Each structure stands twice: as C-alpha cells, then as structure tokens.
Amino acid sequence: MSKEQYNFTFELYDSSDDLTQQDSWLLSEARSVTQFAYAPYSNFNVGAAARLVNGEIVTGTNQENASYPAGLCAERVLLSAASSLYPGIAIETMAISYNNLQGKSDKPVSPCGICRQTLTEFQQRTQHPIRIILGGIEGPVQLIENAEHLLPFCFGSNDLT
Ligand code: THU
C-alpha cells in the first residue's frame, strides 16, 4: 500500500484589475452576459465567455426551465455553442461569473460537477487545456490553468476502450 496525494496550484487575485488585460476583458464579458441568462427559478444568473485558440469569442448563459432538470448551465451552453459554431477548435480560456439577484456576487463560484465532466471531455477531444477564470461581479478572482484540475480521477472516453 502507498499513500498518494493529489494537489494543484491556482492563482488568486485580489480583483480582476490584477489580471492581464486579455483575461480581465474576458471576465468582464462573462459578467456582462449574465444579463442574458434565463433563470427565473433560481434568480442566479450565470455568464461564461471563452476565447478560442482561433481568437473567436463564444459566450453562454444558464437557461432554466419550468421542468427544472431540463435547465442548462452557462458552461455547457457555451461548450455546445463553441462545438457547433467552430467544430474542433480548442478553447484557450473560459471566464465564468454570476449575478445573484437575491444575494451577493463578490467571490468566485466553481463549475458544477456535470460541467466539470463536460469541460474535461472538451479539452481531451481538442487536446488543449482550458484555462478557467472564476470571479463574481466584484471581488477576488481565481485562475486555474487546466480544467482537469477541478475533476481528479475523471472518467473519460479512454475508459470505454
Ligand atoms: N449554474 C450554472 O450555470 N453553472 C454552474 O456551474 C453552476 C450552476 C446554474 C444552474 C442553475 O440555472 C443556477 O445556476 C442555479 O443552480
């Protein structure tokens, strides 16, 4: 028996002002598109914005439904849009923000488990790590260099072979 350890490092910034200009701009896009979320049930408007390796920008927002499980997270709306508009093109960076209409938006929130699974498959099939920027409308910002860091021991297509 051996004891193993999983760890990863991420960058923590006091505010989006401390990011590079490119990253700061992408996070401001994610913040801005929260206005296009359709979230009348949770009042939790999520926005995501990605820069593709070809320079294109793709955004996504959460889209809820009266049949609650039919709702989609912003990240997966974005990944589906990116795959459909620019098939096979990798994502370099995705910024994720949110506007909580019933509370604060002053700290990062992380993608849910299903979105983590979807992110890892997207980066595996495009063979490119996705950088993740997480921040509220204000406050500290986290920068994670690879989406797989958020999902240790992830299940992938290789496991089916
Ligand atoms: N949501 C996202 O869009 N992304 C996440 O990673 C977490 C949750 C959405 C789903 C739902 O519409 C609302 O936030 C509250 O859970």
Beta percentage is 15-25%
Give a count of the beta strands, DSSP E runs of length 2 or more.
6
What average pLDDT do the residues reach? Answer: 97
Helix/strand-derived category reads alpha+beta
Overview of the molecule:
- The chain has a 6-stranded mixed β-sheet.
- The longest helix is centred in the C-terminal third of the chain and has 14 residues, at 113-126.
- The chain is built from 3 helices and 6 strands; from the N terminus they run βαββαβαββ.
- It is globular and about 50 Å long.
- The chain has 161 residues and is an alpha+beta fold.
- It binds tetrahydrodeoxyuridine.
Condensed summary:
This protein is α+β, with helices and mostly antiparallel strands and 161 residues long. It has three helices and six strands.
Describe this protein with a few key phrases:
161 residues, globular, binds tetrahydrodeoxyuridine, alpha+beta
Give me the secondary-structure topology.
Layout: E1 11-13, H1 21-33, E2 44-52, E3 57-61, H2 74-85, E4 91-100, H3 113-126, E5 131-135, E6 141-144
Parallel strand pairs: 4-5
Antiparallel strand pairs: 1-6, 2-3, 2-4, 5-6
